[in-house]
Amino acid sequence: MQVDVYDFDKTAVPYDSAMKYWYWCLFHRPYLLLIVPFQLIWSLLALMRIISVPTYKRGCFRFVSFVNTKKTVKKFWDKHQKDVYPFFLPQNRAKDRKCVLISASPRFLISEIAARMRVDYCIATDHDERTGRLLGKVCRREEKVNRFKALLPDAEVVCVYSDSVEHDRYIFELGKIKYLADKGELKEIAI
């Protein structure tokens, strides 16, 4: 089976969807302001590399325990689906290949837009959608490849789309054709 692999954040949309979702929840659920000081501390510790990315994500996504995740995710994408870049829309993707979306963002957030975009396979970071607790490893860097190969061991990757050679060189290595995405514009690159 032939597939095309897409990163999501800053590739298919112009932002980090998890951060955008957090701000959206904060705006629509002002009581979340009460946990902002704790999240600022988590962020500072992560920036100073005192805590790891998984520890940071484990703490920062606890806010979902204070919202109805299914309802807020649906409303979030109702508003932001228009932000998806044209090249990622179903009608603009290769018809003869399956679409694989791989993201470090939470599956509870990404699976909704993946379904709307008729993505065949969605690989993302697993969080408990009721508590925000991280379940397993963050789906980033080489973990993206590990999960891809576990799900689709015999797939032939034709095209790979990402905004970052540095962070996604592992998935770029899977593809025959590589596209660097920059604000919705694609540039074929050689790695």
Defining key terms:
191 residues; alpha/beta; Rossmann fold; six-stranded mixed sheet; 7 helices; 38% helix; 20% strand; globular
Total discrete domains:
1
Tally of contiguous helical segments: 7
Structural class: alpha/beta
Overall geometry comes to globular
* Name of the CATH architecture: 3-Layer(aba) Sandwich
Computed Rg: 17 Å
Under CATH at level 1, the class stands as Alpha Beta
* DSSP summary, beta strand count: 6
Beta fraction of the residues?
15-25%
Q: Please summarize the sheet with the most strands.
A: 6 strands, mixed
Helical content (DSSP H or I, runs of 4+):
25-40%
Average pLDDT rating = 94
Low-confidence stretches: none
Distance between the termini: 24 Å
Give the neighbour order of strands across the main sheet. 3-2-1-4-5-6
Query: Within the CATH hierarchy, at the fold level, what is the topology?
Result: Rossmann fold
- The helix/strand series, from N terminus to C terminus, equals EHHHHEHEHEHEE
